[in-house]
Amino acid sequence: MIERRRRFLAVAAVLVFCGFSVAPAQAANLLELNFGLSGPRYEAVVPLCEDPFVLGKVQSRFGQKESRHWQSALQIMAFDHVRELAFRPWAEHTIPRRFCSGVVYLNDGSKRPVYYNVIEDGSFAGVGSGVEFCVVGLDRAWAFNPACSMARPYELSTGIRARSR
Q1: Is the dihedral of CA 93, 118, 149, 103 positive or negative?
Q2: Domains defined for the chain, CATH in brackets
Q3: What is the pTM of this model?
């Protein structure tokens, strides 16, 4: 008796599911419409390249990446020749980004070029500025290959001049 009832409920559930899956799609009703959601409104408030917050993020994340993923003791000791490459080099309504470059001095005595960008609302859950970076020669996962060119604005990585604003 119980087995028969279970079988009946399973068949009924399959039939109900099939009935809903073949129903034609309908437009959203008034309660389902998104009132007042016109899209993201960026303020273009992005920290500067020399901002201690930004440089500190690059420095700490580089150290974490090297120790956790590559079992390396490499760390950034200092930054030099930090400059902005471009700010919002693409269309006006894209997410605001500031592209930067510089030179980092590592604890092994070497110096290498670094490219990074600061993204408005780009950190975890869109709260605060996010930072992506690439140290030339130490992009071991090839995330920004070749030679960190994918960490720069497209116009600069291809030789086309970036628009300045």
Answers
A1: positive
A2: 52-158 (3.10.450)
A3: 0.70
